[in-house]
Design goal:
alpha+beta, 4-stranded antiparallel β-sheet, 9 strands
């Protein structure tokens, strides 16, 4: 994730193994999904990916003016890269999110989220039991 307050945007880049994500999408949709661009229409695949993304990567407590935008995806044989953003995002004091990507298909799945801000980078580990994370942009004063 890249938080860019000057652009009022939170940009997301997700990288997953294609086979794993195909399995998760198949469970999610109830139909056999292949991410191979030759196997289905791109529009149908994008609709499934967009819905999955919105349901399994949730940013909490955003203002109503903030909108989600699925930018696109790239099929790279063994990996799939997805791009999305939250737009019209005012400067915030804290960012909270849940990441449950692939947990339905792989209960032992571990996801690493790296948040890049003007303050630097911080990584968070998400598991089935701990899928929520929070980052405070302001430091407490004592």
């Amino acid at each position: 994730m890249y938080y860019k307050p000057d652009e009022q945007q939170l940009q997301l880049v997700v990288r997953v193994f294609t086979d794993d994500f195909s399995k998760a999408l198949s469970i999610y949709t109830g139909e056999e999904i292949s991410l191979d661009p030759d196997s289905q229409t791109i529009e149908v695949t994008e609709q499934h990916i967009t819905s999955y993304f919105k349901d399994y990567f949730v940013v909490h407590d955003l203002p109503k003016s903030t909108s989600f935008s699925f930018v696109g995806w790239e099929y790279k044989q063994d990996q799939t890269h997805m791009y999305a953003s939250f737009n019209n995002m005012p400067e915030i004091k804290a960012l909270e999110w849940s990441n449950t990507f692939l947990f339905d298909a792989f209960p032992e799945q571990k996801n690493i989220v790296t948040l890049s801000t003007a303050m630097g980078k911080k990584s968070f580990l998400h598991t089935q039991d701990q899928n929520f994370a929070q980052f405070n942009f302001e430091f407490p004063t004592n």
